[in-house]
Amino acid sequence: MAIVAIGMTAVIITGGIDLSVGSILCLLAMVTAVVLNGGSSVWLGIAAGLAASLAVGLVNGVLITFVGIPPFVTTLGMLSIARSLAMVASQNTMVYQFGPDHDLFLWLGGGSILTGLPVSRIKVGIYMLSAFMAGLAGVLEASWLGGVTTNLGQSMELSVIAAAVIGGANLTGGQGTILGAVVGAALIEIIRDSLTLLGISTFWQGAFVGTFIVVAVAFDSVREGRRSSTV
């Protein structure tokens, strides 16, 4: 989730939001899985999946930046579109055979990859970056799980936004860091694991995450209010 949170933080810094990251993750993973299942190499499969995620990010960015459609509306629509495309690509079936490079693909999920955040001042590039990071997370998650279904990444958007906000990203834009996104994502996972160890039902996790968002935004609003009053 930390990888996706980095991309989300970049989007939030521009004053936008991306509700489609979970569906993009699913689409990327499914395209990669389908290509591998067809007998292609792992690198071609990953390239195809990343190309699909970048295309979705490009559409998001163009609609938001040049057409003027609000980010919330654009990415909310893309949330449904991308997941629907994943269902079409797989005929809504689970893909767990990854062709001749099956073992190599599974190895990716067990290894470690260094990630970075390229600088971009263009909103289109930012949404492509968000989609790319979601896609990269999709590759790692699919290879780690050893199978891909169209439920992959579902409802991830809330957790990723929470991680970015808890990590210090301001929902009004202009503030946020990569380190903060990573720390926010780690904090959410620690809290989830703690709730599980305490025997608290997983049904309550969404309530806790939502509460953290509200508290984090409220705290940030109070802090900004005090800062502006002293200027």
Q: Which class best fits the helix and strand makeup?
A: mainly alpha
Encode the helix/strand succession as letters: HHHHHHHHH
Number of H/I helices: 9
Distance between the termini: 37 Å
Rg for CA atoms: 18 Å
- Globally, the shape reads globular
Percent strand equals under 5%
Could you report the average pLDDT, rounded to the nearest whole number? 76
Query: Which stretches are poorly predicted, pLDDT < 50 over at least 5 residues?
Result: 115-121
Count of distinct strands: 0
Number of domains: 1
* Oligomer kind: single chain
Helix content: over 70%
Describe the main β-sheet briefly. none
Task: Explain what the structure shows.
Helix 1 (2-13) crosses helix 8 (178-197), helix 3 (42-67) packs antiparallel against helix 4 and helix 7 packs across helix 8 (178-197). Residues 115-121 have low confidence and may be disordered. It contains 9 helices and no strands. It is globular. The longest helix is centred in the first third of the chain and has 26 residues, at 42-67. The chain has 231 residues and is mainly alpha-helical. It has one domain.
Question: What's the short version?
Answer:
With 231 residues, the chain is an all-alpha fold. It contains nine helices and no strands. It has helices at 2-13, 21-37, 42-67, 71-90, 102-110, 123-145, 156-166, 178-197, 205-230.
Features:
single chain, 231 residues, mainly alpha, 9 helices, globular
Secondary structure layout plus pairing:
Blueprint: H1 2-13, H2 21-37, H3 42-67, H4 71-90, H5 102-110, H6 123-145, H7 156-166, H8 178-197, H9 205-230
